[in-house]
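User: What would this chain look like folded?
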Amino acid sequence: MEVLLDDAPVSATPGAAQTVLLDGEGARLVVRLGADEELAVATLSLSPAAGDQEPSFASAPSFATDQGDSLANIQWISVDWGSARTLESIAPSFTSGAAALGVRVRIARGASQWYTPPGPTGAAVPDTETTVALSFPDAVADRVMLEFVETGAESVLTNTFTSVSLTGNPVLDFGREAKDFEVAVEPKRAFFTHAGLPAASVALPKLLETLREQLELEVLSEVEIALSVGAGVAGFVGLQWAFVRDRIAREFADGETSQTLALDFGGSAELPLFKRPDDDDAPLAQLRSLELDFGFEPVRERLVLDPDPEQLREGLGELVEPLFDAAQRLTLPTADASELVGVALRTRALSPTAAGRVELIADLDGAPAGELLARGSFALDNPEGTRAVPRWLSVDFEAPVVLEGPAWLVAHLDSGQLVWLLGEPRDPAVVGPPHYRRNDTGTGGAWLSREARNPTSWGLTRVRALEAGPSTPPALSLVLVAHDGAETLIPLTPDASGQLRWRPEDPDAVSATSAIHLRVSSEAAATVTLTNPTLTWRELPPPADTDVVVDDVLPDVVVPDVLIPDALTPGS
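Assistant: Here's the prediction, encoded as structure tokens.
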């Protein structure tokens, strides 16, 4: 935003009234807004001019007499200054004193004829004086005429002209304060007027609403707002203004206007909306509003097996690579054992890429040696390798399956390495201890249990089944990240149509932030769409302490203890 007063840049919020000369066409106050800016505050007040500075008017007075431009042997002299001013006094000086001399005053304004001013309309000049000063209480004019006449009895002015000679042009004093104001939004007509002088500060009512109505400021383009402040009587006035803009972003931080998120069970994602530049002088942001359209499509699945969150703390993990397979026994209640569509293993990648499969195999004599019930493949591409955080490795079965008894999940890798993370305690009625085997011949060796070394652990697994019932919508919230890294969470609630129109009850109470994120979380698996974002924020001064910089940082890496399978001979 840029603010100019008569083409000169000025502060948008000067804080005190500025003394401005209104002469001719008056003053022009211009506010320029960019396409990503919205005028949020607009105020303008008129007040008596401060100080004792004398105005320097644009046009100088011009003088004329009945002898042209000569000041000798004249009967009248007129002075024209072109615009209405308050005439406080006029003082002609004569070359010598004269007996029975009087001065009659007439004034005019605009297209009017000459008329007598308020107050004294003339004065007799003592024959001992060569100068006479005539003062007026409230004479507003753009020209004045002095007529030199004879005086009669008791120095009463007559209508008989007499000739005099002046030493120079009469001296004029004008009032310094402007009067009779009007304010207009160019090119519209005036929307505010004030007669006379402001006795105190006079604020223009509902200026922001007037600007929005007359100029349609919601248009998404650069805008120039021009306010003209004029006065019927030229002079100084105190102008105090405040223009505050809000910044607007109509896209996400990546430049897109829509986002599609695939959320897993208990999944969440954060979308950056604002990030303060890494510059000590960069302002902070105060969030004013957020609008967007929200939609979601639930994945019609439910979890029939899901570890307690407390079990997800990393401790031990079973190594899975082409040479070693890992397995986990499952026994599901009958109500949860139908229409199983996939599983998810809690894993951490140990290589940049990995590819393999997960098989569901019926139990036979306490080992995964029965019928192949289901299978699903996976491929991981993780350029950060071992910097990857633990994640659920989701695998879809090729077709839904019904589990009619104990079965085993077997993880096999054709390439790469990962760790199948273990948790504890386990429910013996549902899951058994993890198993592993050597697989260097491609046919697999004997399955060995980890129970002796880890009697209460199990391979962390989710099992998914089809779900026909209703699902809970994902939750939205704003994350405000302060300069020191502290986070404030604001829950958001879209309406029934999916429109989110959020504004704080007290915008000025919202804390200053260095970053603003939109967090989306879901208890159930779902695909979430977010479109047409409009984020509005107000710039606040940068923090005094610039040592702390909020930035995206990779989480601390916790490397699990990996259970390296014992060296086994094939088939042992």
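Residues 62-174 form a domain with the Jelly Rolls fold (CATH 2.60.120.260). If you want, I can go into more detail on any region.
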